[in-house]
């Protein structure tokens, strides 16, 4: 992929740890269904979310002001492990719960100003395997996808958010619930 910097670690967490974390986060995170404004109409997001941050940080994501919770010990542990692998530091974690194949996230780039010029986004996947797609913003022939495995880590960095969008589409396949954690550094 030109103008993209991606690193993928399919076995970032061993299966036992990934299973444990999936069950624990599914049960203990206070998952919320937020509304988004689409053409002036409020509609519920097709997924559940939660937002964790260091004290004093708030984050507006897709026009939503997210209310931060403090990091739980599990999230803090994952943050540290992710920081070691990436060589970056993070002060926030956005969590997504895709309950089934009807839940999704549409095309976007994580290019908000508060993320800095060339953000590094570290994304951990737990639970059902889902397809994650990329499309180049200007060259319509450039498309890619990757199946994000249980316990995997995907890192997007460099200039990538300027040139590529990504999405997690709905699927008709019978998929089990999936949790995604994205670690970010907010200025
Ligand atoms: O669920 C995923 O893997 C993608 C999440 C994502 O792109 C985001 O939170 O910005
Ligand atoms: Fe994203």
Automatic annotation (TrEMBL):
Its cofactor is Fe(2+). It holds the Pfam family 2OG-FeII_Oxy_2. GO terms for molecular function: catalytic activity, acting on DNA; demethylase activity; dioxygenase activity; hydrolase activity; metal ion binding; oxidoreductase activity, acting on paired donors, with incorporation or reduction of molecular oxygen. The keyword Metal-binding applies. Gene3D superfamilies: Alpha-ketoglutarate-dependent dioxygenase AlkB-like. Transmembrane segments: none annotated. Keywords: Dioxygenase, DNA damage, DNA repair, Iron, Magnesium, Metal-binding, Oxidoreductase. Signal peptide: none annotated. One of its GO terms (biological process) is DNA alkylation repair. Residues 89-187 form the Fe2OG dioxygenase domain. InterPro entries: AlkB-like, AlkB-like_sf, ALKBH3, Oxoglu/Fe-dep_dioxygenase_dom. This is Alkylated DNA repair dioxygenase AlkB. It comes from Salegentibacter agarivorans.
């Amino acid at each position: 992929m030109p103008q993209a910097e991606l690193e993928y670690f399919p076995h970032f967490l061993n299966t036992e740890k990934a299973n444990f974390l999936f069950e624990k986060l599914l049960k203990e995170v206070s998952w919320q269904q937020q509304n988004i404004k689409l053409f002036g109409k409020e509609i519920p997001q097709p997924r559940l979310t939660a937002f964790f941050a260091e004290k004093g940080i708030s984050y507006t994501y897709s026009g939503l002001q997210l209310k931060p919770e403090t990091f739980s010990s599990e999230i803090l542990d994952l943050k540290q492990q992710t920081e070691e692998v990436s060589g970056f530091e993070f002060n926030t974690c956005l969590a997504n719960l895709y309950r089934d194949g009807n839940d999704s996230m549409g095309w976007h780039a994580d290019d908000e100003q508060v993320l800095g010029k060339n953000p590094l986004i570290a994304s951990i996947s737990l639970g059902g395997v889902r397809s994650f797609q990329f499309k180049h913003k200007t060259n319509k022939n450039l498309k890619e996808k990757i199946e994000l495995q249980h316990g995997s880590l995907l890192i997007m960095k460099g200039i990538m958010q300027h040139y590529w969008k990504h999405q997690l589409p709905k699927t008709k396949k019978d998929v089990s619930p999936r949790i995604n954690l994205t670690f970010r550094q907010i200025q």
